[in-house]
Design brief:
Blueprint: H1 4-8, H2 21-30, H3 33-57, H4 67-76, H5 87-103, H6 112-128, H7 135-146, H8 151-174, H9 178-186, H10 201-219, H11 221-225, H12 230-245, H13 265-277, H14 282-303
Helix pairs in contact: 3-4, 3-5, 4-13, 5-6, 5-7, 6-8, 7-8, 7-12, 12-13
Length: 304
């Protein structure tokens, strides 16, 4: 429902040479903007389920609920621009899977498969949306937070990360497209942001709202980890580090716009859920949820 405006008034994503050839192939295969919007809705629905299951399975929530999925869908759909079929929507699927694999390594003596899978999923995310390349440092740090330092596990993570990229390099060499890929997708996307988020008034308002949410959740850190076990505390720390590691990603995408802020949706959805869960007045919580949905539809149909 909150993404219905994308079907009523589908927005086109403009492909360019700086986009991933993998994403471009998927984009062109779908053919029409309506099909792309439908795939976006399906992906965000699946991602919301993944985020919710991760939060519950890792005991990040005090009791079973759908708050993480609710907030994830709201953030991913909040303004009309977010209705586009953007490479970050595809990449988020694999990034969530990568973090989920890392969470499974806690006190797991046979974690080699999970560590390799984390690197593998992250590399697929990078092939969709280059800024996720910086999250390799996040995954390495997450291993340090969740497990004791082990050089062999760093190798396993790197092998998983490099495996997909090596296969792509072989294919590009075979098709004589490697030089163009490195130039257009890699080198041209390393840039200092200019006219960040297009400089539009609406863009700055959205950026200010997300920045306020990040600040509120950073200030709430002690409340988030209060009365939590060591295992849960470490996994919450990983979510906070995702927020921090998201900042340098702005230097890895030449087409930087407001949609890049969707990289925050995954950690913010869980953090907001932990914050809202502490509100004891159920009526106020439900009123807040309805207000957010009303604000979303206002942005979609009245402001746009």
């Amino acid at each position: 429902m909150v993404r219905i405006v994308g079907i009523i008034r589908p927005l086109s994503y403009e492909l360019s040479a700086s986009d991933s050839p993998v994403f471009a192939a998927i984009y062109n295969l779908l053919g029409t903007d309506t099909l792309r919007v439908i795939l976006s809705i399906f992906l965000i629905y699946i991602q919301a389920i993944m985020v919710n299951r991760m939060a519950l399975k890792n005991k990040l929530m005090r009791s079973p609920n759908y708050l993480p999925a609710f907030f994830y869908i709201l953030i991913m759909s909040f303004v009309p621009q977010f209705q586009q079929f953007h490479p970050l929507i595809l990449a988020n699927t694999f990034f969530i899977l990568a973090i989920g694999e890392l969470f499974k390594t806690y006190k797991n003596p046979n974690a080699a498969k999970n560590i390799f899978n984390a690197g593998l999923f992250l590399s697929v995310a990078v092939l969709m949306y280059l800024p996720f390349i910086f999250m390799y440092l996040l995954c390495s740090l997450a291993l340090l937070l969740i497990r004791s330092y082990n050089i062999l596990e760093r190798v396993q993570l790197f092998v998983g990360f490099a495996s997909t990229l090596i296969l792509l390099v072989y294919w590009l060499l075979y098709t004589d497209k490697l030089e163009g890929f490195v130039s257009a997708y890699v080198l041209d996307n390393f840039t200092i942001p200019s006219n960040i988020f297009s400089g539009s008034q609406q863009g700055f308002v959205i950026l200010a709202i997300l920045a306020a949410l990040v600040v509120i959740n950073v200030l709430y850190y002690r409340g988030a980890i209060a009365k939590k076990g060591i295992q849960v505390e470490k996994k919450i720390d990983v979510l906070y580090w995702i927020l921090i590691m998201s900042i340098p990603t702005v230097f890895f995408w030449s087409k930087l716009d407001i949609l890049h802020t969707l990289i925050l949706a995954f950690p913010l959805s869980i953090m907001l859920s932990m914050l809202i869960q502490n509100i004891r007045n159920i009526a106020f919580s439900e009123l807040l949820a309805l207000s957010l949905i009303g604000l979303l539809f206002s942005c979609h149909f009245l402001i746009s």
